[in-house]
Design brief:
heterodimer, A: 439 residues, alpha/beta, D-Maltodextrin-Binding Protein, domain 2, five-stranded mixed β-sheet, 47% helix, B: 315 residues, mainly alpha, MetI-like fold, 2 domains, globular
C-alpha cells in the first residue's frame, strides 16, 4: 500500500512537473484490436493530467510485426511508445530499439515484484531471468477456450453425451475430453444449423498455428530445451511426448474443426464462434470481454475454461505485451511520463474495468477480482500456467521454421509428426549455429 | 506594334536573363528538363539496384545494426540455388504462371473474338467483362475467400449443385491439391479481361479488306481464322503473354490474401518466399541475392521474349 502511494505521488509529481514545462505530441503504437480502443479512452485521463497530446498508430495483427519491426529496424520516429509483442523483447533490447527502464523504475518506485511474475518474465526481461527491464507489463494475455454453455446445458445433449462417453458434458479438464466434446458436436444439427466442434489456430502467414499447436505440445511434454542448456533441443523438441502432442493437434484439426478452417487465427475463430458455427473456440483471452457482451453468444450463453491438461501437465501459450519507450523517440521524457502514469494502481484498475487485462498484482489479487467478470477466474487460472515461445533476437527465424513444419504436417498432411519435429530441430539448430549460440 | 501581354513580358524581362537563357543550346535546355527525371530515376531505381547487388554479397541483417557486416562473396547465391525451398517455390510459381497464362490467353482470346462481332449491347458487355480488373487485388482476395468458404461460399455451392458433391466436403484453399487451382481461378477471373482487351485491339486492327479479299478467293471461315486472324493477332497475344508473365512472376497480394502460401508451403510462390526472407527473417543480404536472381531471371526471359516478339512483328 505504501509503495502504491509512493508510486502515485511520484507519478503525479512527474506529470504535474512535466506539464508545467512543455506539452508534447506522443504516438503510441500497438495492434488494432479491442484493447487498443479501450486504451484510447483510458489515455484521455493522461492527456488531461499531463497536457500532452496522444496519437495512436494501430496495425491489424497479421501485419503488426512486419509494420512495426520495419519501423524499429529503420530507426523510425513514428512511435514514441511501443506495445510490442513479447517475442520482440530480445531483438529490440539487443538492437537498441527500446530504452532500458531499470533506472526509471527505481526513480519512480515502480517494482516489477508488483506485477504477475510470468508477465515480467515474458514481456519485460532480457536476457530472461535477469533483472534487466525493457518494458512495463501492459496487457496480460493467454490462450484459453470459450464454449457454448447454452448448448452444453441442453438436457438432451447431456444425456446423449453421457451415453456415448460415460461422463458429464461440461467444460473439459483434459485434452482428451476436449477432443471427445469437439467430436460430439462436429456436424451436429443445432437449431436447424450444422455446427462444428472447435475453432483452433491454423493460420500459416504470421504466427497463428504456432500459437495454437503449442497448447497441445506443452501439455504432452514438449519443452524448448533442456533445463541446463536452453539451446540443447535434440530429443527434447522432437521427444515422444512432443510427437504425441503434434499428432493430437492434427487429429483435432482433422476430426473436429469447421470445413475450410485451414488458415484461421484470432478473428476467424471469433467470427466462427459468434456466428454460432462452433461449440468451442481457442483464442487469446483478450476476446472474452467482447464475447461476454455479444448479443448472440454473450452473457450466460458462453463459458470460459483454461487450456485443458494433457499427459505432460497443464500449460497455455502466453500472449500479451509490454509497453516500451522507443529509443529513437525525441519525446522520451513524455513517453516515460506515460509509463509512470500507466503503472499507477488506480489506472491499472481502470484498465481492467475498460476491458484491458492488467498485469498488476494489486488488481488481479484483489479479493473481488475473480468475481468481477465471468471470465476473470479463468484468466487467473490461465495466467498461472503460461509458457512462452522463444524471445531470442532470432525469434522470427525460429517462428517461421515452426510455422512451415507444423502447418505442412497438420493442415497439408505432409509426412509424420516425427518427421515434422525432426525437421524443426534441424532448422532450429541451424539458426542457433548462425547466431553463434551453439558450435 | 500593339502592346500585347507577350510584348509587355518581353519588355519587362531584364536583358541579362534573356541573353543567358538565349545563350543555351537546345541540348542544354533539354538536359535541364530531363535532369530532374533522371535524378529521380537514379535515386529510386538505379541506386537501390546497385545497393541491392552490393548487399547481396554480404551477411547484412537490417535487424542487427550492432553486428559486423561481412563480405561473404557468392555464399548467399550458392545457398539460395542449393536450397530445396527455393526450387519448391519456383515450381509453385511456374505452375501458377503456366496455367494462368494458358487459361487467360485461351479464354481472353475467345471472349475478344466473340465480343468483336457486331451485336446489340456490345459496349455494355465489354464494360461488364472488364469490371474485375478494375478491383484491387486485396479486395478480390478477400471476396474470393468468402466465395471459397465451404459452408457458405457460392463457389462451393455451385460446384456442389453441378456435381452433386457436398459443398462442405471440399476446401479450395485448405486442400493441398486444390489450393494452387484456387489461386489460378481467381487470377484468371480477374485478369482475363485484360488479355481480352489486348486481343480485341488486335482484332479491330485487322483491316476488313483482307477478309473481303479472302472471301473473293472463296477461303472458308476456318481458313480465314488460321491464315489471317491468328497470324495478325499473334503479336498482340504475345504482348499479353509478356505483360501477364511479368506480372504473375511477382504475384504476391492475391496469394497472401487467399492462402498465405499454404497449406504448408504448397502455394508459397517466389515473391512470398522473398518477402519472408527480407521482412520476417530480416536476412537482408540473403534476400538481396534472391531479389537479384529473380530480377536477372525475369529480365533475361523478358529480353529473349521481346526479341521473339519483334521477329513475329517483322514477319
Amino acid at each position: 500500500m505504501k509503495r502504491n502511494l509512493t508510486l502515485t505521488v511520484a507519478s503525479a509529481a512527474l506529470i504535474a512537473g512535466a506539464s508545467a514545462v512543455q506539452a508534447e505530441d506522443l504516438t503510441l503504437c500497438w495492434a488494432a484490436w479491442d484493447p487498443a480502443n479501450a486504451l484510447v479512452e483510458l489515455s484521455r485521463d493522461f492527456e488531461e493530467q499531463s497536457g500532452h497530446n496522444m496519437s495512436f498508430e494501430f496495425v491489424p495483427w497479421p501485419n503488426f510485426a512486419d509494420r512495426m519491426l520495419n519501423e524499429l529496424n529503420s530507426g523510425g520516429q513514428l512511435c514514441d511508445l511501443m506495445i510490442g509483442d513479447s517475442q520482440w523483447i530480445g531483438g529490440s533490447a539487443e538492437s537498441g530499439h527500446y530504452v532500458q527502464l531499470n533506472d526509471f523504475f527505481d526513480e519512480q518506485g515502480i517494482s516489477m515484484g508488483d506485477f504477475i511474475p510470468a508477465t515480467v518474465r515474458g514481456y519485460s526481461e532480457w536476457p530472461k531471468g535477469t533483472p534487466n527491464y525493457w518494458a512495463l507489463p501492459a496487457f496480460g494475455d493467454v490462450v484459453g477456450w470459450t464454449y457454448r454453455r447454452d448448448w452444453f446445458e441442453r438436457p438432451e445433449l447431456q444425456e446423449e453425451f453421457m451415453a456415448t462417453y460415460g461422463y458429464e458434458l461440461a467444460a473439459p479438464e483434459t485434452l482428451a475430453q476436449l477432443r471427445d466434446i469437439a467430436a460430439f458436436f462436429q456436424g451436429r444439427e443445432i437449431d436447424g444449423t450444422t455446427v462444428y466442434g472447435a475453432a483452433i489456430y491454423t493460420e500459416r502467414g504470421s504466427e497463428g498455428i504456432t500459437m495454437g499447436v503449442t497448447n497441445a505440445l506443452y501439455n504432452y511434454g514438449f519443452t524448448y530445451g533442456s533445463a541446463e542448456n536452453p539451446y540443447e533441443i535434440e530429443g527434447i523438441v522432437n521427444s515422444d511426448g512432443a510427437v504425441a502432442g503434434l499428432e493430437f493437434y492434427r487429429d483435432l484439426y482433422d476430426c473436429c474443426t469447421p470445413p475450410g478452417s485451414s488458415d484461421w487465427y484470432m478473428s476467424e475463430n471469433i467470427d466462427a464462434y459468434r456466428s454460432g458455427q462452433v461449440a468451442m473456440q481457442m483464442n487469446f483471452a483478450f476476446i472474452w470481454p467482447g464475447v461476454n457482451a455479444d448479443p448472440n453468444v454473450g452473457g450466460d450463453r458462453s463459458g470460459y475454461f483454461p487450456n485443458p491438461a494433457g499427459p505432460g501437465g497443464q500449460y497455455a501459450q502466453l500472449g500479451g505485451q509490454g509497453i516500451s519507450v522507443v529509443s529513437y523517440s525525441e519525446n522520451q521524457d513524455a513517453a516515460l511520463e506515460y509509463i509512470a502514469w500507466f503503472a499507477q494502481p488506480e489506472v491499472q484498475a481502470s484498465w481492467w474495468e475498460a476491458g484491458g487485462y492488467s498485469a498488476l498484482r494489486a488488481v488481479v489479487e484483489d479479493p473481488g477480482f475473480a468475481d468481477s467478470q465471468p471470465y476473470a477466474q479463468t484468466f487467473l487460472d490461465s495466467m498461472a500456467i503460461v509458457q512462452d515461445f522463444w524471445a531470442e533476437p532470432a525469434y522470427a527465424d525460429l517462428l517461421l521454421a515452426m510455422q512451415d513444419r507444423v502447418h505442412s504436417y497438420v493442415v497439408a498432411g505432409e509426412g509424420t509428426a516425427q518427421e515434422a519435429l525432426d525437421g524443426l530441430v534441424e532448422d532450429w539448430i541451424e539458426v542457433f549455429e548462425d547466431e553463434g549460440l551453439i558450435d | 506594334m500593339s502592346d500585347t501581354p507577350i510584348m509587355r513580358l518581353a519588355k519587362a524581362t531584364p536583358p541579362g536573363i534573356g541573353r543567358r537563357v538565349g545563350g543555351l543550346s537546345d541540348r542544354a535546355i533539354a538536359w535541364i528538363f530531363v535532369a530532374p527525371s533522371i535524378a529521380l530515376l537514379l535515386a529510386v531505381n538505379i541506386f537501390p539496384l546497385i545497393w541491392t547487388i552490393r548487399l547481396s554479397f554480404t551477411n547484412f541483417r537490417v535487424n542487427r545494426p550492432n553486428r559486423d557486416v561481412e563480405w561473404i562473396g557468392l555464399e548467399n547465391y550458392r545457398d539460395i540455388l542449393t536450397d530445396s525451398d527455393t526450387w519448391l517455390s519456383t515450381q509453385a510459381t511456374a505452375h501458377f504462371l503456366f496455367w494462368t497464362i494458358a487459361l487467360q490467353v485461351l479464354i481472353g482470346f475467345t471472349m475478344a473474338y466473340l465480343i468483336n462481332k457486331k451485336f446489340r449491347g456490345n459496349d455494355m458487355w465489354t464494360t461488364i467483362i472488364v469490371f474485375p480488373m478494375m478491383l484491387s487485388p486485396a479486395v478480390v482476395g478477400n471476396f474470393w475467400t468468402f466465395l471459397y468458404q465451404p459452408q457458405i461460399g457460392l463457389f462451393n455451392y455451385v460446384v456442389g449443385f453441378l456435381t452433386g458433391a457436398d459443398p462442405s466436403s471440399f476446401s479450395m484453399i485448405g486442400d493441398v491439391a486444390l489450393a494452387p487451382w484456387a489461386i489460378i481461378i481467381v487470377d484468371t477471373w480477374m485478369w482475363t479481361p485484360f488479355v481480352m482487351l489486348i486481343c480485341l485491339a488486335g482484332l479491330r486492327s485487322i483491316p476488313d479488306s483482307i477478309y473481303e479479299a479472302a472471301e473473293c478467293d472463296r477461303a472458308s471461315k476456318w481458313r480465314q481464322f488460321w491464315t489471317i486472324t491468328i497470324p495478325m493477332i499473334l503479336p498482340f497475344l504475345m504482348l499479353a503473354v509478356l505483360f501477364r508473365g511479368i506480372e504473375n512472376f511477382k504475384m504476391f497480394d492475391l496469394v497472401v490474401q487467399l492462402t498465405g502460401g499454404g497449406p504448408g508451403s504448397t502455394t508459397e510462390v517466389t515473391s512470398i518466399n522473398l518477402k519472408r526472407e527480407a521482412f520476417e527473417r530480416w536476412r537482408t543480404g540473403y534476400a538481396s541475392a534472391y531479389a537479384v536472381i529473380l530480377f536477372v531471371t525475369v529480365f533475361g526471359l523478358a529480353s529473349i521474349y521481346v526479341k521473339a516478339l519483334n521477329k513475329v512483328k517483322d514477319r
